[in-house]
Amino acid sequence: MLSVHRLSPQDIFDDLQWMRKEHHREYLAMYSSWFGGILRDPPFMLLPMDDHLVHRGDGVFEAMKLVPGGIYLLKRHLDRLERSADMISLPWPVNREELKNIILETARAAETEWGCMRLFISRGPGDFSPSPAGSIGSQLYIVVTTLSSPSRTAMEQGCSLGTSNLPVKPAPFAKVKSCSYLASVLMAQEALDRGVDFTISREEEGRLGEGATDSFGIITQQDEFVVPSSPHLLDGTRVARVMELARGLVADGGLRAVEKRPLYAEDFLAAKEILVFATTFDLLPVVEFDGQRIGEGRPGPWGRCLLELLQRDMEPGSESLTPLHQR
User: Fold this and answer.
1) Which of the following is catalytic: 65, 169, 177, 272?
2) pTM confidence score
3) Quick one: which of 220, 215, 217, 255 has its CA closest to 232?
4) Active site includes 260?
5) For the chain, which domains are there?
6) 10-residue averages of pLDDT along the chain (327 residues)
């Protein structure tokens, strides 16, 4: 009969003290309201098992990009975090100004110019029931990780995209950036199984939507920049900023229009360019959709142009950046 060792608190501490895994190199700093501060030792970056975030996915989150000069689009991410929390009646454990200060302090503790900041607000620990009444109060967790650049192959040769077979999130939950991300995990697995880089959701009516963690847009044959619209789509901060920047190209006479409207598979197949947007890689070109070549089968000029606009928007001194030493 297998004997299972009963661990003491000292056993756990000793094990964690010496535990070092390869992926720990990517974890630079963590703030935990549960522990009451910032820690930099990855094995100790832990959450209570009975936190609703763990056993129910009951929480909201945001991922933000840390670049030389500060945090990109911090205000917009906090605005969306607030909307998501309000939609599920989840109180913040601190006020907005306190949260901003904690974010900046955690970013400084990471001691890096390039990183990804993942911010979670959970319902908190208490019991394993689904009832929010069992929680002792919401908690805040912030993790700063390293950030890898997109592969040169993806940038220079483009990516592949397939239509997902998974059902879309129902409204209004699709508008909440919650931690219940099983559908996104399955979409990512679906892409791996099918040998494509991304998959995009499709509603029963045929409208195309979003990816596991990505937003999409197309450049039409009439040089319009169009992003899918639907009640089943989360508002992406990155693609929203690109649309704002791109409107300057309309004023200059380059693009003919920048807008949202329902898009279908035939729109994607007929596009000059398909573009995918996300916080971590900003923008990547798509050259194949459901096995068919898009445009000339290589990254197009509009994708490069929009990426350059984004990169300039992230340069030190940009109004889109919140400096780490701002108070």
Assistant:
1) 177
2) 0.94
3) 215
4) no
5) 9-145 (3.30.470.10), 152-313 (3.20.10.10)
6) 87 87 93 97 94 95 97 97 96 97 98 97 94 94 92 88 92 88 94 97 94 96 96 91 95 90 97 96 96 95 96 96 83
